[in-house]
């Protein structure tokens, strides 16, 4: 098996190291390329893998599958090029920068029959997977409420924010996918607000530093979703499901990113997570292991472009709700 990887930045270099370890060096190969050929050469040298001088040559180098980990603006074109060659493709989220382009890519992938997996790694986190199983087996009784959170320890660089798509499309999109994955339900409406107490560059980009949304699911379940770029306690990503017979939480472990204010309480006692790489190291490995199985034809894509489109539509509804100051029904977010 020969896997290509385009884009060796922060997440791409991390995925390349993971793939190098997962592949069987005796029979498989991994080859990388980047807009910056020196970066590709450097990562290839560090990992002892191959590199190509550009993405066109990478695509033409006899691949069995492609991982797209470039900057977001290149995702849609690379997925189109990869699918046109019939290559099973892994694409980091988001699939495209706009709703219209996501709809178009989803349609193209659907009609092509080529498997494309999108990088919502929480589906591969043991806690999120266990929560989904508890709901599916009816262990929690009737689910009434879900709470989901993505709280970053520190804000991204100022230059990142204007091109990020905003906090709902950039951060909470993972919560929206997890919400669908864990509950098996669709979101019917969104009511969202944002706060700009952080550095001025969030407001200057028309974005917010902290956000909250109340979502109503199609069976009447309520979901409270939050995000902040300023969580000094650590990188805090959690999901709680509350039902008539019980409640479970993903992310409620000794590394929880806050300290109990109760006298004598010792939980949580472990070191907190500083970043998403640390928090989801196992999930990133397992999603790429799944992609190797997709390339080998052993399984279907575990997170399709249609799934990514639904998560994007929820983010779009939240952004409209926040900026227009009103509840937004999901059917307002057209997919034609
Ligand atoms: N699933 C997750 O948890 C997760 C986490 C981080 C980033 N991401 C996504 O991964 C993508 C990359 O993020 P990052 O933080 O690694 O960014 P980054 O800026 O660190 O790296 C992007 C890399 O892509 C390269 N690149 C840009 N355009 C290219 C093109 N046309 N062809 C080839 N290479 C190109 C750049 O030179 C750079 O090396 C983003 O879409 C981001 O949303 C997902």
UniProtKB/TrEMBL annotation:
Keywords: Oxidoreductase
SUPFAM superfamilies: Glyceraldehyde-3-phosphate dehydrogenase-like, C-terminal domain (SSF55347), NAD(P)-binding Rossmann-fold domains (SSF51735)
Residues of the Gfo/Idh/MocA-like oxidoreductase N-terminal domain: 1-120
Pfam families per record: GFO_IDH_MocA, GFO_IDH_MocA_C
InterPro entries: Gfo/Idh/MocA-like_OxRdtase_C, Gfo/Idh/MocA-like_OxRdtase_N, NAD(P)-bd_dom_sf
Residue intervals of the Gfo/Idh/MocA-like oxidoreductase C-terminal domain: 133-330
Family: Belongs to the Gfo/Idh/MocA family.
Protein name stated in the entry: Gfo/Idh/MocA family oxidoreductase
Organism: Terrabacter aeriphilus
Lineage: Bacteria, Bacillati, Actinomycetota, Actinomycetes, Micrococcales
């Amino acid at each position: 098996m020969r896997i290509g990887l385009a884009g060796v930045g922060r997440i791409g270099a991390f995925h390349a190291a993971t793939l190098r370890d997962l592949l069987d060096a005796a029979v498989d190969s991994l080859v990388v390329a980047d807009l910056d050929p020196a970066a590709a050469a450097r990562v290839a040298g560090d990992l002892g893998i191959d590199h190509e001088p550009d993405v066109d040559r990478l695509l033409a180098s006899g691949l069995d599958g492609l991982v797209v980990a470039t900057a977001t603006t290149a995702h849609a074109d690379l997925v189109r090029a990869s699918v046109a060659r019939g290559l099973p493709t892994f694409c980091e989220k988001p699939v495209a920068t706009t709703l219209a382009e996501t709809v178009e890519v989803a349609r193209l992938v659907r009609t092509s029959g080529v498997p494309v997996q999108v990088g919502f790694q929480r589906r591969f986190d043991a806690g999120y997977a266990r929560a989904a199983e508890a709901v599916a087996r009816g262990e929690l009784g009737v689910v009434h409420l879900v709470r989901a959170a993505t709280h970053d320890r520190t804000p991204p660089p100022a230059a990142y924010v204007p091109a990020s798509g905003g906090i709902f499309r950039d951060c909470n999109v993972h919560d929206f996918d997890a919400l669908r994955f864990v509950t098996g339900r669709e979101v019917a409406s969104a009511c969202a607000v944002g706060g700009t107490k952080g550095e001025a560059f969030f407001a200057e980009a028309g974005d917010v530093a902290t956000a909250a949304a109340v979502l109503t699911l199609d069976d009447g379940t309520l979901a409270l979703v939050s995000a902040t770029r300023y969580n000094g306690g650590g990188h805090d990503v959690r999901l709680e499901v509350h039902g008539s017979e019980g409640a479970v939480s993903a992310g409620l472990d000794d590394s929880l990113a806050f300290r109990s204010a109760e006298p004598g309480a010792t939980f949580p006692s472990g070191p907190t997570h500083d970043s998403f790489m640390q928090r989801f190291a196992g999930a990133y490995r397992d999603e790429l292991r799944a992609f190797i199985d997709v390339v080998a034809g052993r399984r279907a894509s575990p997170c399709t472009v249609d799934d990514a489109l639904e998560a994007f539509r929820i983010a779009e509804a939240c952004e409209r709700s926040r900026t227009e100051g009103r509840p937004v029904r999901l059917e307002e977010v057209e997919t034609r």
